TrEMBL record:
The lineage of its organism: Bacteria, Pseudomonadati, Bacteroidota, Flavobacteriia, Flavobacteriales. Keywords: Carbohydrate metabolism, Glucose metabolism, Signal. Residues 1-19 form the signal peptide. InterPro entries: Cycloisomerase_2, Haem_d1_sf, Lactonase_7-beta_prop, WD40/YVTN_repeat-like_dom_sf. This is Lactonase family protein. It comes from Mariniflexile aquimaris.
């Protein structure tokens, strides 16, 4: 009896240890030491990253995303002949290639899936277009559902990111300084709002974060070093706040990259390439406005992308030029960051839990 209890105890300890270790997939640029998409193990108790291994060989997987059930991963290949690929996640953590299609543009830089898991949208930075794809039940890319071209006679588009929200689709275009809103009508996405709010001064909207209820949208501007805060109203959208992402003493060049809300939506985080920092904002839930509370060095160079782990306790940063991933602890009471550790990784530019 005592032996059985001992074995059961060991087994339960193993389960608890395994449960606190999650896979982290890393998208990269392959013009250096990288060969494609990598996987690491992340400990949600300690913040430790370890066991770097190649999950799939693929050219320049600069952005990757899961299907809603996390059984499949989709990756763009950022190149002149842009493509998008589908993979099936294997029990070992490796990725089984399923198929790939043209991205219908050049230099695709972002991909997202809808909640139903039957559509994916790709943003083509070089081609200035966004393409929606139909996904099969087994995870394959079936066909191009719709393609939008945002280039005009006087403006060159650089579509940089897109997100589905129920029957809506939002697309940020750094080239035309616009965030477009589409709505699904009669099985097609139709342009509803050409630009959520005016973007004067060429700020370059790049990525954006949407609150869970869809009431607020926060846009990080690559050229402007700023965050534009937008509120949904009964008649459309309005700007409610505008905040600088840089420390007041910083005078060098900077290009903002990524933006994320904390799990409880009390805090907002953004990445600065140049200043090489993460900016932290406290968010007023009553009116959606922001207050800058911290700018913390990323302990690396060129933080293109970052993510929060599923527990909401840690923030991880992909430092492209210094070939490392930095891990920060998030203080639950203040939202502020404290550096924990760094691990080497080849040209990391996208992190996926």
């Amino acid at each position: 009896m005592a032996r059985s209890l001992f074995i059961l105890c060991i087994f339960m300890c193993y389960l608890n240890f395994d449960a606190q270790n999650l896979p982290l997939y890393v998208g990269t640029y392959t013009n250096g030491d990288s060969e494609g998409i990598y996987q690491l193990q992340f400990n949600t108790k300690t913040g430790e990253l370890k066991n770097l291994k190649l999950a799939a060989e693929i050219e320049n997987p600069s952005f990757i995303t899961y299907s809603p059930d996390k059984q499949h991963i989709y990756a763009v290949s950022e190149s002149l002949g842009g493509t998008v690929s589908a993979f099936k996640v294997q029990p070992s953590g490796s990725l089984q290639f399923l198929n790939k299609l043209s991205s219908n543009g050049t230099a695709p830089c972002h991909i997202a899936t809808n909640q139903a898991g039957d559509k994916a949208v790709v943003s083509n930075y070089g081609g200035g277009s966004a393409s929606i794809y139909t996904l099969s039940k087994d995870g394959r890319l079936l066909n191009t559902f719709q393609t939008f071209n945002f280039n005009t006679l006087d403006k060159i588009s650089h579509a940089h990111s897109a997100q589905f929200l129920k029957d809506e689709l939002f697309i940020a275009d750094l080239g035309t300084n616009a965030v477009y809103q589409y709505i699904l009508k009669n099985d097609k996405y139709v342009l509803e709002t050409p630009n959520l709010v005016a973007m004067p001064g060429n700020p370059g909207p790049r990525h954006f974060a949407i609150t869970k209820n869809g009431q607020y949208i926060y846009v990080i501007n690559e050229y402007g070093g700023s965050v534009t805060s937008i509120k949904r109203t009964s008649s459309g959208f309005e700007q409610i706040d505008f905040d600088n992402t840089l420390d007041e003493n910083y005078r060098g060049k900077n290009s903002c990259a990524d933006i994320h809300l904390s799990k409880n939506e009390d805090y907002l985080y953004g990445s600065n390439r140049g200043e090489n920092s993460i900016v932290v904002f406290s968010r007023n839930k009553r009116d959606g406005t922001l207050e800058k509370i911290q700018t913390v060095p990323v302990r690396g160079d060129w933080p293109r992308n970052f993510t929060l782990d599923p527990t909401g306790k840690f923030l991880l940063v992909a430092n492209q030029n210094s070939n490392n991933i930095s891990v920060f602890n998030i203080d639950s009471s203040s939202g502020k960051l404290t550096f924990l550790q760094s691990i080497k990784a080849p040209s990391p530019v996208c992190l996926l839990f």
